[in-house]
Amino acid sequence: MLLGEIIVVALEALRANKLRSLLTMLGIIIGVGAVITMVALGSGAQKSVQDRIQALGPTLLSVYPGQSFMRGVASGARVSLTLDDDTALANNARYISAVVPELSANLQVQQGNQNVNVNIVGTTPAYVPMHAYTITAGRMFTAGDDAARRRVAVVGSAIPQMLNSNRDAMIGQEVLIRGISFEIIGVLSEKGSQGSFFNPDEQILVPLQTARYRLIGTDRLRSITAQAADLNAMNLAMIEIERVLRRQHKIRPGQDNDFQIRNQTDILATFQQTTETFKYLLAGIAAVSLLVGGIGIMNIMLVSVTERTREIGVRKALGATRFNIMFQFLVEALVLCLAGGLIGVLLGSLGAIVLSQLAHWNTLISPLAILLAFVFSAAVGLFFGIWPARRAAALDPIVALRYE
Prior knowledge:
By secondary structure, the protein is α+β, with helices and mostly antiparallel strands. The protein folds into 2 domains: 3-52 and 269-401, no CATH class; 80-248, no CATH class. The chain is built from 14 helices and 14 strands. The protein has helices spanning 3-16, 18-56, 83-92, 127-130, 143-147, 159-162, 167-170, 208-215, 234-248, 264-307, 309-317, 322-358, 367-393, 397-401, and strands spanning 60-65, 67-70, 73-78, 81-82, 96-111, 114-123, 135-138, 152-155, 174-177, 180-188, 203-207, 220-221, 223-228, 259-263. The strands form 3 sheets. The chain has a 6-stranded mixed β-barrel. A two-stranded antiparallel sheet has the order 2-3.
């Protein structure tokens, strides 16, 4: 019997039992669709982390106050970073292209009958470009505004909504910060929560000197953000920051630092590893569905062999070889898996798109995942189709013809 004829006979057998063929494919359809959707969710989460790293600025280094140590024992009081530290870094660090001090406090903001308690950040105009913000309405305050200690403010993108106001309409309006009137001159672009409890969209920027002398009354900084010259200079920049601040704080050799230096990419590295782990976990769970679908195909094919015992006996009596019988059943199993895999790929991709549009989850459909799921479905068909095919091919024609 020609191979082409065997394939035609196999397809005719599937067409003659449409409902059984559809139910047999269902396990593969669900398995492949689940793999595509779960991997898309995991890949989308990874891409989201990478986007956050870019949004934070991959070359940024943050310096935070630490604890002082006396004979190796940490004291209860935290050491302060001051404007003198900021100036020392700006003047003495060669591998740093820009330095931005940040003086902050949570203060009450009032506009009309609306009250919110948000983070007020006193900083310089370089804060916006360094943190990859843009001004979506109005303008950023200038160095002249800072030197003159003007009462102007640039609000985060979430502040207008928190104050039940319109973004463009807020420009030029007055708000009370700690009871002091400030003019809103600009609105920042949206940044997002960055996977932490702090949302940078819920903050208000004011000139550093204004915050220092009019609002907070201190030069103790929350942090200093330094920008390395490039990615290759990150380690050198960290070494220089440590050298300058140790000299500035008069820390002797062998003593621990009383400050902390954090790399923005390191902050999100753990989160990225977690999302990658969940990606593989979700894909593994979905792959179990493929395994279950393969077992279902094997069971149905075994039932089919039993039902078609007399047919197999007749074909063998007419000259069909063991290879012909085995090849036919393998073709049936393979066609069921490939058809189910194709439908599963379409449904899985559609599911990822629906989740992205309706639930606003980050999804990224991976061509590699589609290819692997499709190949795996074919492998499942071959693997679980071999036993029923061998069992059919091994039937004795005389016994098969007498089967009722």
